[in-house]
Amino acid sequence: MMEKTIEETKAYLGMWVTTDGYVRHELLKGGRYDEARGDRKSAYQGNYRVSGNHIDYKDDTGFSADGEFCDGVLYHGGMVFYKEDN
C-alpha cells in the first residue's frame, strides 16, 4: 500500500516554523498563507498550491517560490520548517 501524499491528507494545513522560530508560515484553508518574520506579523501574504508533496507559493506582490514536504518536514527557500503542534 502506498503512503498518501500531504496533498491527500491535508496535513500541510497549520503553522510551520523554523527551528529558531524566526520565520513562520501559516498555511490556511482555501489556499492562502500568512508569513511572519521575527516581530513582523503578516510580513508576507499570498496564495499557495499543494500538488502531491510539492508546494508553490505566490505572494501578493507577485514573488513566487516553491518547496517540498518530506517526512513531515517542509524544505523551502533554503530553510527547514517543522509543523507546530496545536
Automatic annotation (TrEMBL):
This is Atu4866 domain-containing protein. It comes from the Bacteria. It comes from Mucilaginibacter litoreus. Pfam families: Atu4866 (PF11512). InterPro entries: Atu4866-like_sf, Uncharacterised_Atu4866.
